[in-house]
Structure prediction request, 167 residues.
Amino acid sequence: VHRSKDPRRMIREAQAICVGGGNTFALTKKMQEQGLLKAILGKIKAGTPYIGWSAGSNVCCPTICTTNDMPIVEPESFKAIGAVKFQINPHYLDANPEGHAGETREQRILEYITANPRRYVIGLREGCMLHYENGKLELIGSRPMRIFKKGIAPYEVKAGDDLSFLL
Prediction:
C-alpha cells in the first residue's frame, strides 16, 4: 500500500473520502495534526462523496462533543470538519439497564443541548445511516432516529420523514 507523505494531497486527489470508526479523540487529533479538517471540508463542498461511520460520523459534525468515546488523547480542540450543521450521536441507545445508576445517552445529550441551545443532535441507531445528495437528507434504515433540540421535547423520526430542518 502506498502512503503519501502529504495526506492533504491525498485528500485533494481523492474521488471519495471514507472515514471509519475508532476513537474519535484520537482520530480528531491526527486529522488536526495533518491539517485534514479544512481539506476534507473543501472537498465535500466541491461535491466529493464523504462516507463516515462511528468516529467518521462524529468528525463530519461541527464538533466531536457528542461522541461516546473516552478522551484517551487530547486533540487541539473539539472542532471537527463541520460538513453538517448538526451533531450526531452514533450507536445511539435508549437502554437504561435495571440497577444502572449512571447517566443515559439521552441525559448526556440533554446536557449538551442545554450548553449548546442552537444545535440539533441526532441519535443515530445501529443499522441506520443518513444519506445526503442533491440538497436532500434522508434516514435509511428500519429504526427511527431520535432528535434533540433545546426547548423541544426529544422525538423520533423515521425513514421517509422530512429532515430538511437539519440542513
Q: What stands out?
A: The mean pLDDT is 94.
